[in-house]
Amino acid sequence: MEYLEQIGIRAKEAESRLRILGTEEKNRALRKAAEYLVKEQNRLLAANGKDMEAARGKGMPQGLLDRLALNEERIRGMAEGLLEVAGADDPVGEVIQMKKRPNGLLIGQKRVPLGVVGIIYEARPNVTADAFGLCFKAGNAVILKGGSDALSSNEAIVALLQKALADCGLPETAVQLIASTDRQLTARFMKMNRYVDVLIPRGGAGLIRSVVEGSTVPVIETGTGNCHIYVDASADLDMAVEILFNAKTQRIGVCNACESLVVHEAVADAFLPMAAARLAEKKVELRGDAEAMAAEGSILPASEEDWGTEYLDYILSVKTVRNIDEAIAHINCYNTGHSEAIITRDYANAQRFLDEIDAAAVYVNASTRFTDGGEFGFGAEIGISTQKLHARGPMGLKELTTAKYIIYGNGQVRR
Amino acid sequence: MEYLEQIGIRAKEAESRLRILGTEEKNRALRKAAEYLVKEQNRLLAANGKDMEAARGKGMPQGLLDRLALNEERIRGMAEGLLEVAGADDPVGEVIQMKKRPNGLLIGQKRVPLGVVGIIYEARPNVTADAFGLCFKAGNAVILKGGSDALSSNEAIVALLQKALADCGLPETAVQLIASTDRQLTARFMKMNRYVDVLIPRGGAGLIRSVVEGSTVPVIETGTGNCHIYVDASADLDMAVEILFNAKTQRIGVCNACESLVVHEAVADAFLPMAAARLAEKKVELRGDAEAMAAEGSILPASEEDWGTEYLDYILSVKTVRNIDEAIAHINCYNTGHSEAIITRDYANAQRFLDEIDAAAVYVNASTRFTDGGEFGFGAEIGISTQKLHARGPMGLKELTTAKYIIYGNGQVRR
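YS: structure for the whole thing
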């Protein structure tokens, strides 16, 4: 415990300093860090080379090797990410609201850093710089636990971030790495309520589940997206085809990609052949129920499991429904609380879908792919929250803060 | 697991109905429930009589018996609580913000119910009606697990609440009670992530700790308050005495009562005798450091433990400091994130205290006793959150909701 305890204590020390840091001080450190990443990229590439070699040695699959790899372009991307965060508005210090009470007390809410944020993630070294940048700009100390296979890369990156902080006269412990491959340590990290205010897991469903189940520190769940597009009876079918094509194929391995098509039976015969033809351009496999198969010959049979599957692949499930009630019930049963869309020309159905679908982002006549910090207009994001507490949907800088009540009095006592 | 699973499934069924309930429908059910509580109070008193008899039989201490007891006045209080909630603004449906993006998408955030709320509390039957009222008005289904010693009372109360719901054509399972004294069941309840969106423990430090440690469902920690008042060198000492007296003695067993006085050494000699004389009216015992004892003869020696103790009693710890830095460091070390106050005439020190103290509510020149939903102007509260995620400070109806993004498009796809 001693090693983790020391990390916790140092994070707390940094926290009290970071809480009152000016925006320009933070931006200077972020720019300095970006500079070091590029200037010292050979160190990073060398460290990453060690990780890559070890990973290849133990037969890591190509997809994971891709995520682990650093190259000049990726390092430039990390640096640009830090510069982008430096350019973003500082959320800290904003007074969200303030009202005068009848007794003269002026009661307001002010945005302040969360404190110490823990990030648990997979072997993707670029997350190291991204997570630091966002947490730091929001005034938080951050403790990182990255995937073991990226340990050398992460150590090299964190060393440069700390060097930048030190150069700017700021506490290096604003960012710390748990430099260990011991799983027991991670388990204990998840119970450090005394030192860590929130844990944010970033990665696949398995990682997220293990953090939710193993943690006593509050967790913000980010993650999986089994996103649906419902094509209503009144839909503009051409629009529906283009939105579906975009949401399914524009980028395949992301959480806001469409995984399931729900279609009103009245338009199934007309729509499914159109959709199948367009999706065939990207060789998307369709798996549907009997009605869908009857409407379009290329559709394969779907199993119950398909309705709940986030494929992250060129596969789409197709469910036909008799009315919007069935569509809403189906989606609320199988969705993962991420992004859901209706394509319709019917005012009442649009409003019902917006009201009744339980998800972080509910769309009318647009692609689910827009659920993204940048697309929503608040810059880089630390993840997409699919749970309901604190933050729901894309989490930007604001979601890495909390608020405290500030009260100005002149001697008030309670009667 | 079957029993809990059924409760979970029924809560989820109620949830989808409650999500779209109109304000007037909710208010009607709340008023009907208030009516039944009063009209059928004999049933409640009889059920409570059974609990009281059993509790006396096993030697429950008087303080706990007091909390367990129902009488006509308390039942009227419960009914009035429900009527008050019926009269409060409905938080659901408010669109918090909406902006048009350059691509024409209209992206907004709409306040919606959390879903299913679990409340774990002690043997205080009045919490049963209060918690239902707040959760229900915010559109949530609620699952209650009250202290075993109040089981008969809680069953009787929940039966009346369900009767009121049924009378209004609403799902009775909007409120359910885990009618068991099996601790294993409570442990499993805390891991029902599939059915429960948030757990709110209400009670003493032990209960809250056990929920935080045992739960995989997100928890909102409410609770303990080791609240400080710092009397600065420039303080109006008369004002400081009155605020301290109010915060310490106006009500003794509450979480926003003052437990510790921090005083600048420059005014210790003048202030401590004044404070001691006023607090003597209520026989408050003072425990201080050596400097405090030198300034006021009646002060007893404090131990290290005193700095971290929430007495909930006529006891106050007294710490002297050399400057505001020491005051802030001491308070940030020992406070529980609840309510902290500075008494000062110094502008810079007031601002520094507001900026640097890490707590849910930070006061200048006012009593910590104001940290309360009613005093803050948002009506009844479900508790005071001392953690930083989702809600911090008094939690009213708004804090029992979440927001979802709603997006109006006209065919947008992502490039």
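YS: worth flagging: Residues 96 and 109 of chain A are 6 Å apart (CA to CA).
IM: good catch. Also The first helix of chain A runs from residue 2 to 18.
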